[in-house]
Amino acid sequence: MVEALVWLGTLVFAVTGALKGVEKGFDLVKYRLFGRRLGLRLPTPRG
Q1: Cβ partners under 8 Å of residue 15, min gap 6
Q2: Which of 2, 5, 24, 29 is least crowded, fewest Cβ atoms below 10 Å from its Cβ?
Q3: Residue ranges per domain, the chain?
Q4: DSSP 8-state symbol, 44
Q5: Are 31 and 40 in contact (CB under 8 A)?
Q6: Which residues contact 27 (CB under 8 A, 6 or more apart)?
Q7: Number of C-beta neighbours around residue 31 at 10 A
Q8: What are the residue boundaries of the Glycine transporter domain, all occurrences included (predicted)?
Q9: Residue 34 CB contacts under 8 Å (≥ 6 apart), including other chains
Q10: DSSP state of 43
Q11: Alpha-carbon distance 35 to 31, whole Å?
Q12: pTM, rounded to two decimals
């Protein structure tokens, strides 16, 4: 029971971390494609 909860928690942590990484990657791509034309600057890193 405890092992299953630990495994599930690890899985959830990994998935949320991956989603955050994908989100940051898309932000970087958007800024690279459109940022120079629109005069946008990269946001300061959070956390």
Answers
A1: none
A2: 2
A3: 1-39
A4: P
A5: yes
A6: 43
A7: 15
A8: 5-31
A9: 40
A10: P
A11: 4
A12: 0.48
